């Protein structure tokens, strides 16, 4: 006879599942009573409620009859994966359905939305109740990496749903779809293999395979984050809301894969205790140590604010539409670059992986904060100069938010620069280090303003471009060698080499400060039809930035000579 386990219905998880069953049934019943729609979003919402209802009922039935113990799968992994997936699906349905199918007088659609939101809360509660605790016996999918795998697969489903019936004829767009498909299939295979207890069949260590796939997925999604919006907004005047949704979901999945990779790398390579390794045939799993204090310190709080503000800036500008201007591309790159690396720093410090990275972390974070401050300052000046008007409210909002970004990053630089005496700090936190960042940044502004027709016909102007390029490359090498802590490998004094370079760079910039304006503006007055901005103004920008970089290199050379040759106690 079948043994009935009434206790499964009276424990907190069982009660929550009964309520999930009730509210998901009410949701699809209310929507079904309104009538059928051929819209793909309506189909998704109905599938969500029916799927969650059926699987929840199946889980309750199997646990009530104690048959779940006879099934040759990892039951904890199966229920954890389903509760996480159901939570995400209910959240999506609770947002999508009222957005497209509800109105102020639509009583039943509003009721379905309310019950769907309640079902989402119940499934989220189940995730919290079944979440693996340190020292408890639990499956892989109850841990953070396991839940991230479910999240990645779900976001890919949202992307596929939004792809619609567009014709993807461009190879770049086809590559993005291939990325979405390959990463989804691999993530789904990991989930199925985990639930089916098939991980021991892998010919290589599972945690190493998982880590390799996660890192590869991050690289592939990074290309998709750039290629998808670039080709859609460049070649399509009105791509539609679905393309914007796919762009947002691509960025979201990139973040999920980055976090997943960080967890996997730490568990595979940096966690020494056997009990803490992500080995599938072991039942004990100790959760990864995280440093919450890194988010509550002043620098952590400022980084969170900076990530939010940069994301808001790029979202406002992207919502206006694509423009084929190098300055527009520069501003968008600025906000995307700053947002991405700020999130990366937050994740690495939160997971304490920053201590394991073989670079000078203080130098890296200081260099990035200084660079981000300069980038946001430039974007805050360039974008309103070329792309705003009195009635362009989103552009004005993006400009204001960008100025706040600049202030936030400047505050991070100040905190790193003004640390109390005696605290450990890197070279790039000092004045010469910050000047090196400034030199590379000004060179980037120069390169943004250069056009091939500006210098292609003049050897003297080509010399100026060579000076900009050589000085930029050597300054960037010094920054990278400092961050990578590779200066000690030089067979001679690195400080003296840097001093000589600074003096030579100052002399080279002295020549360009004379040659560039002389040959650029000789017999080349500003055209009368040039109103707000024209290519002639780019020559003026390069001239001004050349003078700025000459001054910076001169200061850097003076600092270096003084520190190396005249300061005795260094």
Which key phrases capture this entry?
4 domains; single chain; mainly alpha; about 575 residues
Helix content: over 70%
Return the domain count.
Answer: 4
Cα-based radius of gyration, to the nearest Å: 29 Å
| Strand composition percent | under 5%
Name the structural class.
Answer: mainly alpha
Distance between the termini: 85 Å
- The strand count comes to 0
Largest sheet, in brief, is:
none
Based on the structure, what is the oligomeric state of the protein chains? single chain
Low-confidence stretches: 132-138, 272-288
Large-scale geometry: globular
The overall average pLDDT, rounded, is 80
User: In sequence order, what are the helices and strands, one letter per element?
Assistant: HHHHHHHHHHHHHHHHHHH
The number of distinct helices, counting runs of at least 4 residues, comes to 19
Care to describe what's here?
The protein is mostly helical and 570 residues long. It folds into 4 domains: 1-131; 134-287, no CATH class; 290-429, no CATH class; 446-570, no CATH class. It contains 19 helices and no strands. The chain has helices at residues 7-10, 12-34, 40-64, 75-101, 107-130, 144-163, 171-195, 206-235, 241-270, 293-296, 298-320, 326-350, 361-387, 393-417, 431-449, 452-455, 459-483, 494-521, 535-566. Helix 2 runs antiparallel to helix 3 (40-64) and helix 3 runs antiparallel to helix 4. The radius of gyration is 29 Å and the shape is globular. Mean pLDDT is 80; it is low at 132-138 and 272-288.
